[in-house]
Fold:
Amino acid sequence: MRKEYDFPKMKGRKNPYAKRLKKQVTIRLETDTIEYFKELSRETGLPYQNLIDLYLKDCAQSHKKLKLNWIETC
Structure:
């Protein structure tokens, strides 16, 4: 390794892993949902945010559709 580098002469390059990076978002979740994943986190040793990400990723990859039954109150 050199003692000194001339950074202005160095060429930059794109991060080859940039497409794999995660993006931070804000999402509102019910307390019960967060507690469920936190408990699962304690059991598995994985951070609860990672568990939520893995679950949502599985839903997206398997093209799961949410079934909603709207009840009219009027």
User: Anything to note?
Assistant: The chain is about 40% helix and 0% strand. The helical segments are 31-44, 48-61. The chain has a mean pLDDT of 90. The radius of gyration is 22 Å.
